[in-house]
Amino acid sequence: MSYQEEADKFMPIHLHPVSRRSFLKQSLVAGAGLLASPMLFAASRKSDAHAWVMMTDPHIAADPTQLGRGMNMTDHLTQVCGEVLALEKAPAGVIVHGDCAFSTGKLDDYEQFLKLMRPLRENKLPIHLALGNHDHRERFYTAANLKASSAVPDKYVSVVKSERANFFILDSLNEIPSNPGLLGEKQLQWLAKNLDANKKKPAIVVVHHNEKRMIDSDKLIALMDERKHVKALFHGHIHRWRLDETPGGVHIVNLLPVGYPTATGGATGWVHATFAADGVRLEVRCTNQEDPLHRTVHQLSWRSA
Ligand SMILES: [Zn+2]
Fold first, then answer.
1. Model confidence at 36: pLDDT above 60
2. 66 alpha carbon to ligand 1 midpoint, in Å?
3. What are residue 169's DSSP bridge partners?
4. pTM higher than 0.85
5. Which of 124, 146, 131 is nearest to 41 (CA)?
6. Strand partners, 270
7. Which are the contacts of 93, defined by CB distance < 8 A and separation ≥ 6?
8. Cα of 26 vs its chain's centroid, Å
């Protein structure tokens, strides 16, 4: 099976690179998320096939003046996209860990989100998305002109392969906009099967909700812990930067939000993740460059197989 066929089978939510002239609706297609090859990048900028942009919780509203906890999310995402494009080397791709929309996943929120993300796509960066509790599957698909289909009924899951790690993108969206998240038996079975079929490279699990706020969190942790090639879980939802580990030594990376922090404060921004054979280097980039977290580097080593 080719990568294209595999991608079509899983039908993940992927936004392809576009040319500047192509019309938005025509240019958004599903699938081909496994084609995250450096060959895709413009010749003008050097690329790093091991570097990924990890971002979460942009919470974009149709109204660009909308604030969340006193912060302007549109300004934040615009700044973040600018910083990604200013990187000396183009990353392999961008992974958005959910809550793309402001609150209930309105169609025009997604139109604004897609507009803000478009410069990344025009610069040949593939974007892979997980949905959060403030998203709406069908409305996102309508806005992005994608066809709704997945290997798991009513959930959107995918595998994104890269040279040093495979990313397993899950769908924890349960009810909008309530907590907690839910993976469900079928998705957990899909994950186990696909992890077992891809044992040769480090496996990175990507999901919106944190490892404690899903109805079936315990099942996910057990499933990851017992498969030694699973090295890390990246998530959003909490709107606060934090590193932790499961009992079995799987790293948990709680990404800082793009949009706005928790009620008690904290940084906003994104993470430049560079994968090595035996771990990952995480550099935090804050929208407020005076924040003490800005430009801090966190080196995670993979547990042994
Ligand atoms: Zn959120």
1. no
2. 15
3. 158, 206
4. yes
5. 124
6. 285
7. 36, 52, 53, 125, 126, 127, 128, 160, 162
8. 23
Ligand 1 centroid, distance to 134 Cα (angstroms): 7
What is the distance in A from the centroid of ligand 1 to the CA of 209? 9
Taking the centre of ligand 1 as the mean of its atom positions, its distance from the CA of residue 104, in whole angstroms, is 11
CATH of the domain at 43: 3.60.21.10
Q: How far is the CA of 22 from the centre of ligand 1 (A)?
A: 31
d(CA 180, CA 216): 10
Q: Which residues contact 125 (CB under 8 A, 6 or more apart)?
A: 17, 53, 84, 90, 91, 93, 94
d(CA 74, CA 58): 8
Residue 265 has a pLDDT of: 84
**Number of structural domains found in the chain:** 1
Domain that holds residue 166: 3-301
Is the confidence at residue 10, as pLDDT, over 60? no
Q: Residues 131, 136, 139, CA angle at the centre, nearest 5°?
A: 120
